[in-house]
Write a structure and sequence with these properties.
Elements: H1 4-11, H2 22-35, H3 40-53, H4 55-81, E1 88-95, E2 99-104, E3 107-112, E4 123-130, H5 144-150, E5 153-165, H6 171-181, H7 186-197, H8 204-213, H9 223-238, H10 244-261, H11 266-283, H12 290-304, H13 312-326, H14 332-351, E6 353-355, H15 358-380, H16 387-407, E7 410-412, H17 418-433, H18 438-460, E8 466-471, E9 476-481, E10 486-489, H19 499-506, E11 514-515
Parallel strand pairs: 3-5, 10-11
Antiparallel strand pairs: 1-2, 1-4, 2-3, 4-5, 6-7, 8-9, 9-10
Helix pairs in contact: 2-3, 2-4, 3-4, 4-12, 7-16, 8-16, 9-10, 9-11, 9-15, 10-11, 11-12, 12-13, 13-14, 14-15, 14-17, 17-18
Length: 516
């Protein structure tokens, strides 16, 4: 039988640390097995490996993986089989130019609005007309349905009518904070909403420039933001000679309310949960390892919402945290390079392109954000009289990003399937494990080069003649490939996701020989 005592003993082994990391790996593998059947034997081999290593750990990996699978299936069925009700009652937790996000029980409802007088914190009785989502069954094309599930949005539609109800809730404080931020200059308020509350506030052009430069992660509220904020809070309360236990309790309560203030984000949830668990374990005088803290946060988040594993930001935030823990160095430039190396395959799998200057941009802007911009952002909230300085700093930063975008050179290349992606990451981890073993490094680099070459050939040569019917909504686009030539019959109408082009880019197909 499993028990907390056995688990505690497992975690306190002096010679082995961070064993809980095997549980999130098991959860990810069973999730991938649901999406891609060829991961099932990999998951079975993984379980066999864990069983040989530690039978107690094997029980926890297996039980939590099965529990995760059951929650996934229950939520999937509930998302697919619900009936639209005449009336809903919920609280508005977020708002942008054309939509509101409403907290409804344990899920969210997204409503598209026009000029309705609705604000964050309003409790409303409403009905909606559900929007049909034309989901494409095409590899390499953005899946809005999966994105919706990852955000725990159960229903989406146009707001038909609503009635405001009297209520006081925590989100009214968020509305006051948003109104306060909007009193700053236009550029300042956009940055403050983005960096303090995680709200989408940038223009499409600026978002595109930031994404192409490869620094979009700096604009998401991440572990860096939360760590700096927690550090400032502790330093302030220490000025009053308060006991560390009291400071920890205040910090946990503050972070909980801060999480409610922010828009949903895996990086925010991960960072806040990790810091809170660390503070709780410290209060309980419980021994802990950083990897165990990260693993517990992963398990909690993804047992509540397994679909958040559809979000690429989930993998990026946990991967970055894992690299920081493993690659123990005080050299920020070396660490930045390693983080970029490990994040690049995921970026290429999702975006099919990357900046040739990503190392330079990431190091340059990383220093600016960590040493200057993020501290300045939090500070300016309490010094509104100095907002003109922040407005000028934001203006200069936007101009620099725009200038660099004009000079930027993008490489169009994609990791064509999740199996290649999986192999690349296994080899990358082995490469850093063998960093002091020359023969091992040579073997791993050779295998890594071979996998990347196979991935490249996927778009250049078709060893087996294939016919691919691409789902483009009205009609189909048919891609035919033989050994030397690529034929495309029809392209489909223009759509929001550029379906046919996205499919070609994702498969590294650079040239169409015959278009009909």
């Amino acid at each position: 039988m499993l028990s907390l005592t056995k688990l505690k003993n497992l975690l306190q082994l002096d010679d082995v640390k961070g064993l809980l990391i095997y549980i999130p790996i098991g959860m990810i593998l069973i999730f991938l097995s649901i999406e891609y059947l060829f991961f099932i034997p990999i998951y079975i081999l993984y379980l066999f490996y864990i069983f040989k290593q530690n039978k107690i750990l094997f029980k926890y990996v297996l039980i939590i993986s099965v529990f995760f699978l059951l929650i996934y299936l229950i939520k999937y069925i509930s998302y697919r089989t619900y009936n639209i009700k005449d009336l809903y009652k919920g609280i508005v937790v977020d708002k942008n130019d054309n939509s509101i996000l409403i907290k409804y029980r344990l899920n969210y409802i997204k409503c598209y609005i026009k000029n309705e007088d609705i604000n964050i914190g309003d409790k409303i009785l409403f009905n909606i007309k559900e929007t049909d989502i034309n989901e494409r069954s095409v590899e390499g094309v953005f899946s809005y349905l999966k994105y919706k599930y990852s955000k725990n949005i159960k229903i989406e539609g146009k707001l038909k009518s609503f009635q405001k109800l009297k209520s006081f809730n925590i989100y009214k404080l968020k509305r006051l904070l948003v109104n306060y931020i909007e009193s700053f200059g236009p550029n300042s308020s956009d940055y403050l909403k983005k960096l303090v509350l995680g709200m989408s506030s940038f223009s499409d052009e600026l978002n595109s420039n930031i994404s192409d430069a490869g620094i979009i992660y700096l604009y998401a509220i991440s572990g860096l933001h939360i760590s700096l904020l927690s550090l400032y809070i502790k330093k302030i309360f220490r000025l009053f000679n308060m006991r560390e236990e009291i400071i920890s309790i205040i910090l946990i309560i503050f972070l909980f309310f801060y999480l409610l203030m922010c828009s949903k984000s895996s990086s925010i949830e991960r960072a806040i949960l990790m810091i809170s668990i660390k503070e709780i374990f410290t209060l309980l005088k419980f021994k802990f390892n950083k990897l165990d803290i990260m693993s517990i946060s992963f398990i909690i988040i993804h047992l509540f919402n397994p679909f958040s594993l559809f979000s690429i930001s989930t993998y990026l935030t946990y991967l970055s945290t894992l690299i920081i823990f493993f690659y123990d160095t005080k050299n920020n430039i070396k660490l930045s390079i390693v983080l970029i190396i490990f994040s690049t395959p995921l970026i290429l799998y999702t975006n099919s392109k990357i900046s040739i200057f990503i190392f330079l941009f990431s190091i340059f802007f990383g220093v600016i954000f960590s040493k200057f911009f993020i501290p300045f952002t939090y500070l300016i909230l309490f010094l509104p009289f100095a907002s003109f300085l922040y407005e000028k700093a934001v203006f200069v930063l936007n101009q620099v990003i725009s200038l660099l975008n004009d000079l930027n050179i993008m490489i169009n290349f994609s990791i064509v399937n999740p199996f290649y992606l999986f192999l690349i990451y296994v080899l990358l981890f082995l490469l850093f494990k063998f960093k002091h073993f020359l023969k091992g490094k040579v073997v791993v680099i050779s295998l890594l080069s071979f996998i990347i070459f196979l991935n490249y050939l996927h778009g250049v040569v078709s060893f087996i003649p294939t016919v691919k019917v691409i789902d483009v909504g009205q009609g189909d686009s048919i891609l035919i490939r033989d050994y030397n030539n690529t034929y495309l019959i029809d392209t489909g109408v223009s759509d929001d996701y550029h379906t046919t082009i996205s499919y070609l880019k994702h498969n590294n197909i650079k040239k169409i020989d015959y278009l009909f």
